Structures are given as structure tokens and as C-alpha cells.
Amino acid sequence: MSQPPLHEPGLIEVFGAVLRRELTLAFRHRGELINPLMFFVIVITLFPLGIGPELNTLQRISPGIIWVAALLATLLSLDTVFRSDFEDGALEQMVLSPQPLPLIIIAKLAAHWMLTGLPLILLAPLLGYMLAMPVEALPPLMATLALGTPVLTLVGAIGVALTVGLNRGSALLSLLVLPLYIPLLIFAASAVDTAASGMSITGHLLILGALLVFTLTLAPVAIAAALRISTS
Amino acid sequence: MWKFIHKFASPKYFYNISGKILPPLGWITVALFAVGLVGALFLSPPDYQQGESVRIIYIHVPAAMLSMSCYVAMAVSAAIGLIWRIKLADIVAWAIAPIGMTMTIIALITGSLWGKPMWGTYWVWDARLTSELILLFLYLGFIALQTAIEDTRTAARASAILALVGLVNIPIIKYSVNWWNTLHQPATISKMGKPSIDASMLWPLLVMIAAYMCYFAWLTLKRARCEVIYRERNSSWVKKMVGEAS
To answer: Is the pLDDT of residue A6 over 80?
Structure first.
């Protein structure tokens, strides 16, 4: 019975290992990485075609369009975040592992955000410019997306964790998650609006930051609880 | 204390005691509705500004109040089921959900019927209306998740988490929507604010609120009772009771 004690990995080590695994897995399926981005671009392209190319109208609605498209793209890409791990049993191992589950989840979602949220942020100014957004509103747009997309990922993951065991989870997922996205959408879009009219948006950004801190602390716990239920 | 809670939470005890509470509660509800409706529709005066349309308020306000408190009751009950694994709490949460949803729908419909003569439109993207609509989506999500999962225990626990997340989100939604709205169209709405209401209108309103609450309690007990007996259909006491009846 005198086995050498197992090496207990520290928290940072666990975080790094999961992050590396997720990124490696994602890069082995490069084709899938681009899909949410294409979705984001195409949805935004549809609006000028549907509404008409008047610049005034587009300028008025562009923050809302970009934010709604970002929200839908995140939801679309999140749908699969736990799916393959659930199907091959890796998720159960994560739930059973002695390492804290919320930490593993944060690492997984961090990888997911780097692959979907970050490109959205980089792509947004270009699309904003195409939608006739004033140039001084573009940095605020990126700032709101930088603070907001992690919230989208974290809150959406709660819904994904609850529906991962279900066959037809996707349609249900939007019903569960989209109402929870509303506060973020309101604050973010009105921040960009305010910036476009040349006013200070510090207050908006502080609220978005508060939402980010709030979800970053509590959502992983909720996701962990939901995953335990889904895998039980 | 714990002993009492566990005793009350046992399905059989609940079934028996709710059977005793239901009939008197039902009659109280009927009496309150009778008094309240007569007071609201005939005895109370028409408003000097809103005319006869003010009578919609007697239906609308209690429903709107209940739509929100139902959600809190549902979430708290679901949380109790999740934390202490009390089956009865899951059942009560499941019983409340459609009632709360119906209250929300009643509040939305009567609100828009009232809005047409008052504001000239059935729907405005006002803070209150919008947050009520989101509340409806939250109820729908809870019910949809509950029905999507086959195993009742898992369904109850999963939807309990959803209800709790929604509960955290409700104040955020409420304030963000308020804020969003005041930013964009400051001078509208909220005539519901606090005009000091005359006593002749206040008493029917209070009676109607009490009637709605009793009705809610009666309906919750009734639904929970049906659900208890359905979920316990394989247990000995249900079989014995059904055997005696037939």
C-alpha cells in the first residue's frame, strides 16, 4: 500500500492544461472555428439588404445590429462547447476529477472565448464602419464587446450545461438564454449609442465591467452545478 | 422544527392536509371574487380621466403583482427542492410555474387593452411592459426545460438552477430596462405611478388582490395535490386510497 504520492497539480497548472487541451482540440478542427464568424458577418450583411442602404438609418441601428449579431453568433458557437466532451465521456471525467470543476469550466470557456469572442471584437470595427458608424464610436464598440462577450459566453454556458444531455437542446437553449442576455444588450448598445453622439461612456463601461465580474464569479458555480445534474 | 418540516413535506401528509384546506379556501376565494368584482365593476366610480376603462385596473394590477411574486415563490420553492432535496418543493415549483405564466399573460393582455384607450396604442416598449414580457420568457424557459427532461428528479433540479439564475437576473432586467427606457423616451408612461387613489376605488382593488392571492393559493394546492398523487402512483398509500375509493 506504499505507493508514491501522486503529483497533485496546482490550480494554475490545471487551468493551463485544460486551456491547452481545448485550444489544441479547436485547432485540429480549424474549419469549425470560422463558422460563427461567418455567421456574424452574414447576419450583419443581411440588415442593409433588408432595410435599404440609407446611411442615416443604418447609422442609427448599427450598434444594436452588431450586438444582436454578436449575441447570436456566441449562442450558436456555444451550442457545442460541452457536446463532444459529453458524448465521449471526457465531461464525466472532468466532473469526477478532484480538481475544482468551476476552474476547469473557466479554462474551457476562456479557450472558447479566445476562439470566438476575440475574433468578433477584432472584426467588429470593420463591420461598424461598413454600417456607417462614426469613427469615434468604433473604440467604444470594441470596448463594450471586450467586456460583454465573456459575459455572453459565461451566461450562455449555463444554458448549454443544462441542455447538454438533451437531444434537441439547441432550440431550447435560445429560449433559456436569450432573456438572460437582455440587460447586457441594453447596456452595451446604449453605450455605443451614447459614444456615437459624442458623450462619455464611463458609466456604461463600469456597469458592463460590474456585470462581467458578477458573472465571472457566479456563473462557473452555476455551470458546475448544472453539469453535475446533466451528467448524473 | 425540522421534524415538523419533514412531516409536512411527506407527500402523504401534504395530500391529507391540503384536502382539508382546499374546500374552505375555495369558498373564501369565490366570496372575495364576488365582493371584489361587484365592487370593481358596479360600485366604484368611473375615473374622471380614464372613464370606465379604469375598471380594467382591478383585473390588471392583482395579476401583475402575482406574476412577479409567483416567480419568486417558484424560484424559492425550486431552490428548497434543489438544496434539501425535498420532493414536495419540486412539485410546488412545478405547480406554480403555469399559474405564474398565466398571470403574466393576463397582466400583459389586460395591460394592452387598457393601453389602447389610454395611450392610443396596444403596445409600447415601456420599461414595465418590456420587463413583464421578459418575465413571460423566463416562465416559458422554466416550463420548457422541465418538460424537455424526461426524468422528473433531473428535470426539477435542472430547472431549479434556471429559476435561480432567472431570479438573480430579474432585478438586473428590471433596472436595466428602466434605465434604457428613461434614456430614450423620458416623458412617457407610468401613469400607474402613485396617484393617491380614492378610498372608493381602493377597497375593490384590495379585495381583488386578496381574491387573486387566495385563488393562487387554492390553484397551487390543487395542482400540487394532483401532481403528488401522480408521482406517488406506485406507492402503497396511493394504491390503498385508490383501492378504497373504487
So the answer is: no
A225 touches chain B (CB under 8 A): yes
Beta carbons within 10 angstroms of residue B127's beta carbon: 22
How would residue B238 be classed by pLDDT, with cut points 50, 70 and 90? Answer: confident
State residue B186's pLDDT score.
Answer: 42
User: Helices B152-184 and A202-231, interaxial angle, to 10°?
Assistant: 170
Residues B88, B229: Cα–Cα separation, whole Å: 11
**Alpha carbons A150 and A208: distance in angstroms, whole number:** 11
What's the rounded Cα separation, in Å, for the pair B97 and B84?
20
| pLDDT at site B182 | 58
Strand partners, B51: B47
Contacts B81 to A, Cβ<8 Å = none
Write down the residue that cell numbers 381583488 correspond to: B208
State residue A221's pLDDT score.
Answer: 94
Residue B176 contacts A where some CB pair is shorter than 8 Å: yes
Q: Which of B141, B158, B183 sits opposite A229 (nearest CB)?
A: B158
pLDDT at A216: 95
Rounded Cα gap, residues A124 and A188, in angstroms: 14
B12 at A interface, C-beta within 8 A = no
The SS3 assignment for B47 reads strand
> Residue A197: pLDDT above 70?
yes
The answer, for B155 touching chain A at a CB cutoff of 8 Å, is: no
Mutate to test the interface with B, among A172, A175, A197 (most CBs of B within 10 A): A175
Q: Which three cell numbers stand for residue A229?
A: 445534474
Query: Span A123-150, mean pLDDT?
Result: 92
Note the pLDDT tens digit of each residue in A52-84: 888 888 888 899 999 999 999 999 899 888 988
Phi, psi (rounded to 5 degrees) for B7? -65, -45
Which residues from B are below 8 Å from A199, CB to CB? Answer: none
Cα distances (angstroms) measured from residue A62 to each of A43, A176, B163, B206: 12, 26, 33, 47
- Residue found by looking up cell 414580457 in the block: B133
Instruction: Please tell me if residue B226 touches chain A, with a CB cutoff of 8 Å.
Output: no
